[in-house]
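Minutes, project check-in
Item: structure for the 249-residue chain
Input as provided by the requester:
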Amino acid sequence: MHVLILGGTTEARALAGLLHGQGGQSGAVRVTSSLAGRVAAPKLPPGEVRIGGFGGAEGLTGWLRAHQVDAVIDATHPFAGTISFSAAYAAEKAHVPLLALRRPGWAPVAGDDWHPAGSLEEAASLVDALGERVFLTTGRMGLSAFAACTSWFLVRSVDAPEPPAPARMEVLLDRGPFTLEGERDILRRHAVDVLVTKDSGGEATAPKLRAAREASLPVVIVRRPPVPEGVPVASTPPEAAAWVANLAA
């Protein structure tokens, strides 16, 4: 059985490990993980790995057929919306079962001061009124949306961002998971007064939300983009692995 994981996330790597382990024991599961290639030195999952795009939905359809893929799992980042629609299209055209592995989104709790935004551009329109020192944790892609802001930005990303970017900016190169104490220290050390993040969900980057809550800071949180309808969803790698096992049974 050949399983294609559209990944790059922590959950995708964990799932590849689970399925690769099954393959090592029974020889029944072949795992190929596909990474977008946007990070210079990605953490590679177990099993086979391909890096780069497919050439759109039609290209992915052809790849599924050419490589005799038996199942596709969309374990991409919640904000990698285009590939999810391409996966739904390609899986239907190639008659291949598709599962979405999506970590649950975050929800505000007592003490949170959240300001939802529908896009990075909308988030950028909010920050100058909320604070003067912004901790921006939306990654280097889309940084141009904040280029016209007058606030000072601490930009955290895995790789160095490229212009256009805010005029007043410091870059912090780091990769999660992050600790609560580490996030507290960043907020204190840089005198942050507003946090901007995407609703990525999961535990790896959630400590910043608690740190902001403790410090009574406003949080601009970008809502997730829409996803294809009718695709079954698993919220954890073990659930997705069980789905694969049921297909193979």
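Outcome recorded: The chain has a mean pLDDT of 93.
No further action items on this chain.
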